[in-house]
Specification:
Layout: H1 2-8, H2 12-45, E1 56-58, H3 59-66, H4 71-80, E2 81-83, H5 91-97, E3 106-109, H6 114-138, H7 141-151, H8 164-170, H9 173-186, H10 192-209, H11 214-267, H12 271-274, H13 279-304, H14 306-321, H15 326-370, H16 372-377, H17 381-406, H18 409-433, H19 439-480, E4 503-510, E5 520-527, E6 532-537, H20 543-548, E7 558-563, E8 566-567, H21 573-578, E9 580-583, E10 592-593, H22 594-598, H23 607-616, H24 620-625, E11 633-634, H25 643-657, E12 661-665, H26 673-686, E13 691-696, H27 699-702, E14 707-712, E15 715-720, H28 722-728, H29 730-739, H30 742-746
Length: 747
C-alpha cells in the first residue's frame, strides 16, 4: 500500500482538492434536511413566520404582552423596538408591507443579530401566545372554560366584546400573578422552537391586523428556502463532477506511472527472473491488477473519504436535531455492522482467490492460442477445451459464490432502511403529539438516519474491491521489489574505442539459480575478430547457455567472460549489447511492417542499408513477392511468415546493426541447405571483420569455421578446426558420421 501512496505524490494537490470537494459536497448534502425541515416547520406550519418576535407590532398589543412579562423581560422588549415615525428611514418599506401601520402607534423591530432574536423568541412567544389565547377565550365561552381549567381558576363568562385585559388590570396583583404563573407553567416544558411554532398564529394575526398579506409572506419564505435548496443542489452537482474528474485523473495517472514502472522493471529482468514469473502472470499484473488498484484509488477519493464525513456529520446533526431519537440510529448501525461483518467474513477468502484464478485462465488461454497448430496436429482440442473449461468454471464458481453472498447486502440494507423509517415515524409521531419535537424535525431526522445508513453502505462497498485490490497491490509489489540478478556496476568501465570484438571465456562455470549442479564446467576458449567460432554439441550440452553468458542474459558462476579484455560485468548492459548482434533460435518479429522490424536495430538506417541487409540475409526474394514489399504487414509474433523467413528477417535485423560481434544461436536451423549455404557465403563477405559465434547442431553449417568448440554435458571435449577434430575428438566424429555421407566429407 505504501508503494501505491508513492504513486499518488505527483497528484498530491489533485488529491487534496478532491478531498476538499468531498467536504463541500458533504456539508451541502447535510444542509438539505435542515432546509426541508424549515419549509415544513416554518413555511407550511408557521405560514412563513420564522420567529415569535413580530417585525412590526401595535402599541396596544405590546401593552397587553407586558402583563405576562417580568420587569427584566419588559426592558428587553422595549430596547428591541423603535416607535415608527414618518421620518424613519424604513417608513415607506414598512407601510408598504403593513398598510395599517399608519393608522396608529406601532413599533418596529430593530436590526438585531440572530442570537439576539433567539434570546427574544421565548419571551415574546410566551407573551404573544398568552395574549392571543385570552383574546380567543374572551370571544368564546367554551375557550374561557378551557382557560379556567388550564389556570385552575373559575373564570366568569363575560359578555361578548368585554375587554378582558382591562379586567385583568383591575384584579388584585396576587390573583393576576397567579394567572401569569399558570400560563407560564404551560410553556415550561416547551423548547424555544415549539414556542415559536405555537406563537406563529399570534404573529400572523398581528400581521393581518396591520394589513399584511399572510399568503405572500408564506410564499416568499418557501420560494426563498426552496431557492437555497436549488443552489445547494447545484453546489453538490458541481462538487461531484469536479471530484470525479480529479479522482479519475489521479487514479489514471497513478495507474499509468505504476504500469510504466512495472513494465520497466520487467524489461530489466534477466532470464532468472522470468523463470520466477510466468508471462501470463506478468501480463495480468500489468493490466488487470493495476486496473484494480486504479479503481480503488478512484473509489477511495469518491467514497472512502466521503462516507465517514457524511456518516459522522449526519449523526452529529441528528443528535442536535432530535436527541431523544438518537438510539434508533445506534440500533440501525449495530444491525448493519453485524450483517456487513458476517457477509465479508464469508466472502473475503474467496475475494483473495480471484486474481490467482484470473492468472490461471490467462495462462491456459495464452498456451492454447500460441500452440494452436500443435493442438490441432495432435487432435487434442477436446483436452484443451476441458482444461480451459476447468479454469473458467473455477473462476465462475468463485465469482458466483461471492456474488451470491454479496447479493444479500442490498435486500438487508433495504430492510434496515425501511425498518428505521417506520420506527422513526412511529416514535416521532408520538413525540410530535406530545409537542416534544416538530414534524419537520422528525422528517429531517429521518433523512439524517438514511444518510448514516447510506454512509455505512458506501463503506461496505469498498470491502468488495479492497480485498482484490490488496491482493493486486501485493502482486504488483512482488514485481517492483524484485532485485534483478543482472545489474550494471556502480562504476562502469568503458570499452576501448579501438576494440574489435575479441571474446574470451576463461575457466567459466555456470549453474542455474536454485540448481544443485553446474551446467557448464571450466569453459575456456577465444573467439577472434574476422573468424567464425562454432559451438556444437548434442541437445542439452549447454550450447545456448554458453552464448547467453556473452550479452549477460545470465552471469557466470565462476570464471569470467571478456570482450576486448574487459570483463562483461564491468561495463553497462547497454554498452555491452550495443556491440552484439544476437539472432535467437526462435526468430522474434513484432507487429508492424517488414521495414519497421528491420529498423528495430537501427531506426536511422538508410533504404540502401536495409536492402543490403535483406540481400545478405537471403530475404530479398520473398520480400519482393509480398504485397507492399518492405511495407508488407507483419502480424503479431510474425505468424504470417514462415519459420525460415522469420529467421532470415531476424538475421537481416542483426546485420543492419553492424556490431563487432555476431551470435547465431541455432539461427539457421529453419533454412534449407541451399539457402543456408548462400547465406553463409554472403555473411563471410559482409561480416569478414566481425567475430562470428555460431551455435548449431548441423556439421555442414560450421565445417569451414576457423574454430569449432565441441560440448558434451557442459564440458569442452574438443576444440579446433574440422580436420583437427576429426582426428582428435571422438564426440565430433560421431556427430559428423551421423550427419554427413562420405562424399560430403570430402567436399
Amino acid at each position: 500500500m505504501l508503494r501505491t501512496i508513492k504513486y499518488l505524490k505527483p497528484y498530491a494537490l489533485t488529491v487534496v482538492v478532491a478531498i476538499l470537494l468531498l467536504f463541500v459536497q458533504a456539508i451541502a448534502e447535510l444542509s438539505l434536511p435542515n432546509y426541508m425541515s424549515d419549509i415544513v416547520n416554518v413555511g407550511i406550519q408557521q405560514g412563513g413566520i420564522e420567529n415569535a418576535v413580530p417585525q412590526v407590532i401595535r402599541s396596544s398589543q405590546l401593552e397587553k404582552m407586558y402583563i405576562f412579562m417580568t420587569p427584566e423581560e419588559k426592558n428587553s422588549i422595549q430596547s428591541a423596538y423603535d416607535l415608527l415615525t414618518p421620518s424613519a428611514a424604513n417608513y415607506a418599506a414598512i407601510t408598504k408591507k403593513f398598510p395599517a401601520a399608519t393608522e396608529g402607534e406601532v413599533y418596529v423591530l430593530k436590526d438585531l443579530s440572530s442570537e439576539e432574536i433567539d434570546a427574544l423568541n421565548p419571551i415574546t412567544g410566551k407573551a404573544l401566545l398568552a395574549v392571543y389565547t385570552l383574546e380567543q377565550a374572551s370571544a368564546d365561552p367554551a375557550k374561557m372554560a378551557e382557560l379556567g381549567q388550564m389556570t385552575g381558576m373559575e373564570l366568569p363568562q363575560l359578555p361578548a366584546g368585554t375587554d378582558i385585559f382591562a379586567l385583568l388590570q383591575q384584579i388584585p396583583a396576587e390573583q393576576l400573578q397567579q394567572i401569569v404563573d399558570a400560563v407560564s407553567e404551560q410553556f415550561a416544558s416547551m423548547d424555544s422552537s415549539l414556542i415559536t411554532q405555537s406563537a406563529a398564529e399570534a404573529v400572523r394575526a398581528e400581521n393581518e391586523a396591520l394589513g399584511a398579506d399572510p399568503q405572500s409572506i408564506q410564499t416568499n419564505y418557501i420560494l426563498r428556502v426552496g431557492g437555497m435548496m436549488l443552489l445547494v443542489s447545484v453546489v453538490i452537482v458541481v462538487s461531484v463532477i469536479l471530484n470525479s474528474l480529479l479522482s479519475s485523473r489521479a487514479g489514471a495517472g497513478a495507474a499509468r506511472d505504476m504500469r510504466r514502472d512495472v513494465f520497466s522493471k520487467v524489461e530489466s529482468f534477466s532470464k532468472a527472473e522470468f523463470e520466477t514469473f510466468s508471462t501470463a502472470s506478468l501480463i495480468t499484473r500489468c493490466t488487470n491488477d493495476i486496473t484494480q488498484v486504479q479503481m480503488v484509488i478512484i473509489m477511495m477519493l469518491r467514497l472512502v473519504f466521503y462516507a465517514p464525513i457524511m456518516g459522522v456529520g449526519a449523526i452529529i446533526l441528528a443528535v442536535q436535531n432530535s436527541p431523544s431519537m438518537t438510539w434508533i440510529i445506534g440500533l440501525g448501525v449495530a444491525v448493519l455492522l453485524s450483517i456487513i461483518l458476517t457477509i465479508f467474513s464469508i466472502s473475503l477468502p474467496r475475494f483473495k482467490r480471484i486474481q490467482a484464478l484470473i492468472d490461471r485462465i490467462n495462462l491456459v488461454t495464452r498456451e492454447s492460442l500460441s500452440g494452436l497448430m500443435v493442438i490441432r496436429a495432435f487432435n487434442t482440442q477436446n483436452f484443451e477445451l476441458e482444461r480451459f473449461d476447468k479454469a473458467n468454471v473455477d473462476l465462475t464458481e468463485n465469482n458466483l459464490f461471492v456474488n451470491r453472498v454479496m447479493v444479500v447486502m442490498m435486500p438487508a440494507m433495504t430492510l434496515i432502511m425501511n425498518g428505521l423509517s417506520l420506527l422513526i415515524i412511529w416514535v416521532g409521531s408520538h413525540q410530535v403529539a406530545a409537542s416534544a419535537i416538530q414534524v419537520g424535525d422528525m422528517m429531517a431526522f429521518l433523512q439524517y438516519a438514511m444518510q448514516v445508513v447510506f454512509s455505512f453502505l458506501m463503506m461496505s462497498m469498498m470491502f468488495i474491491i479492497l480485498p482484490r485490490a490488496t491482493v493486486s497491490i501485493r502482486r504488483i509489489d512482488d514485481v517492483l521489489k524484485v532485485d534483478p540478478v543482472i545489474k550494471d556496476p556502480e562504476t562502469p568501465k568503458p570499452f576501448d574505442q579501438k576494440s574489435m570484438g575479441l571474446v574470451e571465456f576463461r575457466n567459466v562455470s555456470f549453474r542455474y539459480p536454485h540448481a544443485e549442479e553446474d551446467v557448464l564446467c571450466n569453459i575456456s576458449f577465444t573467439a577472434k575478430p574476422g573468424e567464425t567460432t562454432a559451438i556444437i554439441g548434442s541437445t542439452g550440452s549447454g550450447k545456448s547457455t554458453v552464448v547467453n553468458l556473452i550479452p549477460r542474459f545470465f552471469d557466470v558462476t565462476d570464471g569470467a567472460v571478456y570482450i576486448d579484455g574487459r570483463d562483461v560485468r564491468e561495463v553497462t548492459q547497454v554498452d555491452l549489447r550495443k556491440r552484439i548482434g544476437y539472432i535467437p533460435q526462435r526468430g522474434v518479429l513484432f507487429s508492424g511492417t517488414i521495414e519497421s522490424n528491420l529498423r528495430y536495430a537501427d531506426e536511422n538506417a538508410t533504404e540502401e542499408e536495409i536492402n543490403q541487409a535483406a540481400e545478405t540475409a537471403q530475404a530479398s526474394s520473398f520480400i519482393a513477392k509480398m504485397e507492399g514489399g518492405m511495407d508488407a504487414p507483419v502480424s503479431q509474433g510474425g505468424t504470417n511468415v514462415s519459420g525460415g523467413q522469420k529467421q532470415r528477417l531476424a538475421i537481416a535485423r542483426a546485420l543492419l546493426k553492424k556490431p563487432p560481434i555476431y551470435i547465431f544461436d541455432d539461427a539457421l536451423s529453419a533454412l534449407d541447405f541451399k539457402t543456408d549455404a548462400a547465406l553463409r557465403r554472403a555473411l563471410n563477405k559482409s561480416t569478414e571483420k566481425s567475430t562470428m559465434i555460431i551455435v548449431t547442431q548441423r556439421v555442414s553449417t560450421i565445417k569451414n569455421a576457423e574454430q569449432i568448440v565441441v560440448l558434451d554435458e557442459g564440458e569442452i571435449v574438443g576444440k579446433g578446426t574440422h580436420d583437427q577434430l576429426m582426428e582428435s575428438c571422438e564426440t565430433y566424429r560421431e556427430m559428423v558420421s551421423s550427419q554427413l555421407t562420405g562424399e560430403e566429407l570430402l567436399r
